[in-house]
Design a protein that fits this description.
alpha+beta; Phosphoribosyl-aminoimidazole Synthetase, Chain A, domain 2; single chain; 736 residues; 25 helices; 7-stranded mixed sheet
Length: 736
């Protein structure tokens, strides 16, 4: 197909589009001719890693995705889970890593915007957002700038749109110096019988473009996100999208109003690869062809080419297939909200994807093969080498009180108040627990008692040492955080962030992490219903830590029986539930070693999934029956950090018994399957006797200081000062 004034297809042009020679040959074999420039762009968009999952699809198919409450699993814009009473929660997590490193404010802002569209495209009104952020080492020259820009972008978009940010993570490590991670999560509420899907149905129906106009921002963004960074990183800035949260808010209201009219047959967010991906996916899912006329697409820049229009990732746009008899009614809705509404094509019965521009056919491709025939690789991989456990006598000793204060005043364990106070955590008026607890909790509007809990977790140190155990642990910790609020964990979404899958050692990490995630989700009845894979997070050959983020949703039937982590009253007994003998033993890859001694040694802790399930269900029963007065799961920093966090949150001290054996292992070991639970003193023995798992009384609440065994007492005021001090001090010199 020859189009006037288009570039000649050369091997270099093919390579610039992220296509390997063998992939280009597959295109030639598939269409029987040389593609036009626009067609080359379409193939690059549909066949890149970000859109096709070509390196991970084989392994993603092994994950559990079904369950009694699952209404929609992976394959749509978001997952859907039944929460009873005719309601459903719709949720997903997705990455905006590469754009956020290049242009932190807009990269993060459009990440939030994109994940919100994924949710309301399904017919849900967004009710909660989270974000999992990972930056380079604090003293790296770019870190403050990136933290400032990303946090401002997340807040700027979410606050303006009007969705509360209820949780998330912020972590620092030198391995993210060249590739930060910005993983955005959103959840919404919908009627369970009014979920909207992207599958087009019916021939000759109008394909309608909705929302904002198309510009040149984000052209090639999905392809950029499917490649490593090099020294030319600044040249990629034009591939970053620009967001407008106020337009998105109008788009939300217009879409929900339109959906209520019955006009919508299918709907797809224009996210990665923009008009190309949305049109192809809608047609292919419905076994239909699609014909687009680009002359009808609303644009905000002059002289845009077909290539630019097809690959633009301008924000706040949707594509729909509508009932033709309701087209006028639909147009009136969007005109009322002052948004573009343009019929840009139609569905056909020939399974072709045709694109017309200025009277010329610039693309004519087999629509099913654009998606179904994308390369799917079984990449070579090598099993990770798991390090030996660290010898007990190799662990440096330290005063327990000094260690607690050191962890509280460190980059990775200090308060994130500086971050989340820039987010609106209370808008919509339903937030019951905001960032800083084990999970965010939001009341279900329209129901007098129900609430939903949200958490996001992963420990990349564990995942590098042992990807299989690290994958299990990410799921288990997310599950524990939901339990700790009194929620029944329902389902999860994942964001699998790794380096270059063409390196067998990285592919081995991916394979083993997914295996661990799958086993944990199966054992804990916590299916994966949506997600995202972000690969090639490398710069000049140096990759990130493997970071398979897990975000989960849980249901609290009656929020009167909701638990918080702060000590509630003086004189309560403190129980350690799920503990090994000696309270804690595992110091390999621990926060104690890394953040206090600069050492990364040993292997990840083992996750006993049967024990996790039994312990979690027991703790949940204590919360539901009103016996537990405070609950906190244990993870990074172990028992010592967990107790300090409970004392700070409750503004009440505690006295903890002396531990048997090594106090460093007891107070800073990161053994899994553990919760701190406080109960009234008179209930303690009954709870211990009824526990189907290990449960020991380790101390009591009270006073103004925390005393850990034989260590000196630390006032709660000093704990809070250490905890709250690091982040503001770090960001004090940030550039506006």
């Amino acid at each position: 197909m020859t189009i006037p004034n288009e570039p000649q297809i050369t091997p270099q042009l093919v390579a610039d589009h992220g296509l390997k020679p063998e992939e280009y040959q597959k295109i030639l074999d598939l269409i029987g001719r040389e593609p036009s420039f626009t067609e080359l762009g379409i193939f690059s968009a549909m066949w890149n890693e970000h859109c096709s999952y070509k390196s991970s699809k084989k392994w993603l198919k092994t994950l559990p995705t079904k369950g009694p409450r699952v209404l929609q699993g992976p394959g749509e814009n978001a997952g859907v889970v039944d929460i009873g009473d005719g309601q459903a929660v719709v949720f997903k997590m997705e990455s905006h890593n590469h754009p956020s490193f290049i242009e932190p404010y807009q990269g993060a802002a459009t990440g939030v915007g994109g994940i919100l569209r994924d949710v309301f495209t399904m017919g849900a009104r967004p009710i909660a957002a989270m974000n999992a952020l990972r930056f380079g080492e604090p003293d790296h020259e770019k870190t403050k700038h990136l933290v400032s820009g990303v946090v401002a972008g997340v807040g700027g978009y979410g606050n303006s749109f009007g969705v509360p940010t209820v949780g998330g993570e912020v972590q620092f490590d030198a391995r993210y110096n060249g590739n930060i991670l910005v993983n955005a999560f959103a959840a919404g509420l919908a009627d369970a019988d009014k979920i909207f899907l992207s599958e087009a149905k019916g021939v000759g129906l109008p394909v309608v473009y909705l929302g904002a106009k198309t510009g040149r921002d984000g052209v090639g963004g999905a392809t950029m996100a499917s490649a490593e960074f090099g020294d030319d990183i600044e040249e990629k800035r034009p591939t970053v999208q620009v967001g407008d949260p106020f337009t998105e808010k109008r788009l939300l209201e217009a879409c929900l109003e339109l959906m209520a009219t019955g006009a919508v047959i299918a709907i797809q967010d224009m996210g990665a690869a923009g008009l190309t991906c949305s049109a192809v996916e809608m047609g292919a899912k419905g076994d239909l062809g699609v014909e687009l006329n680009l002359d009808a697409v609303p644009v905000r820049e002059e002289n845009m080419t077909a290539y630019e229009m097809m690959l633009s990732e301008s924000q706040e746009r949707m594509l729909m297939v509508l009932h033709p008899e309701k087209e006028a009614e639909a147009r009136a809705v969007f005109e009322k909200w002052e948004l573009d509404f343009a019929t840009v094509g139609k569905t056909t019965d020939d399974l072709r994807f045709r694109v017309l521009w200025q009277g010329t056919e610039v693309a004519n491709l087999p629509i099913k093969e654009l998606g179904d025939e994308a390369p799917e690789y079984d990449r070579p991989w090598v099993a990770p080498t798991v390090p030996a456990p660290i010898a007990p006598d190799a662990v440096p000793q330290m005063d327990v009180a000094d260690a607690v204060l050191g962890l509280l005043n460190s980059a990775n364990h200090s308060s994130r108040r500086w971050v989340y106070e820039q987010y609106d955590t209370l808008i919509q008026g339903n937030s019951l627990q905001t960032p800083g607890g084990d999970a965010g909790v939001v009341r279900v509007e329209g129901h007098p008692q129900k609430a939903l809990a949200f958490s996001s977790d992963v420990n990349p140190r564990y995942c590098e040492a042992d990807p299989y155990e690290g994958g299990k642990q990410a799921v288990a910790e997310c599950w524990r955080n939901l339990i700790a609020t009194g929620a029944e964990p329902l389902a999860a979404t994942d964001n699998l962030n790794f380096g270059n899958p063409e390196r067998p050692e990285i592919m081995g990490q991916i394979v083993h992490a997914i295996k661990g995630i799958g086993e944990a989700c199966t054992a804990l009845e916590f299916p994966i219903v949506s997600g995202n894979v972000s690969l090639y997070n490398e710069t000049n050959g140096r990759g990130i830590l493997p970071t398979p983020t897990i975000a989960g949703v849980g249901l609290i039937p009656d929020h009167k029986h909701m638990a918080r982590k702060g000590f509630a009253t003086e004189g309560d007994a403190i129980l350690l539930i799920g503990a090994p003998e000696g309270w804690g033993t595992h110091l390999g890859q621990s926060a104690y070693l890394r953040d206090l001694h600069g050492r990364r040694e040993g292997t990840a802790p083992h996750v006993d999934l049967d024990a996790e399930k039994a312990t979690g269900h027991f703790v949940l029963s204590l919360i539901r029956e009103g016996t537990a007065t405070a609950v906190h799961d244990l993870s990074d920093g172990g028992l010592g950090l967990g107790l300090a966090e409970m004392a700070i949150a409750g503004k009440i001290g505690a006295t903890i018994d002396a531990a048997d054996g090594n106090p460093v292992a007891a107070f800073f070991g990161e053994d899994q399957n553990r919760y701190l639970v406080t109960v009234r003193a008179e209930d303690a023995e009954k709870v211990i006797a009824s526990a189907p798992v290990s449960a020991v009384r380790i101390g009591k609440t009270g006073g103004e200081s925390l005393k850990l065994g034989a260590a000196r007492a630390i006032s709660v005021a000093d704990l809070a000062a250490a905890y709250e001090g690091w982040f503001p001090a770090f960001m004090g010199a940030t550039i506006n």
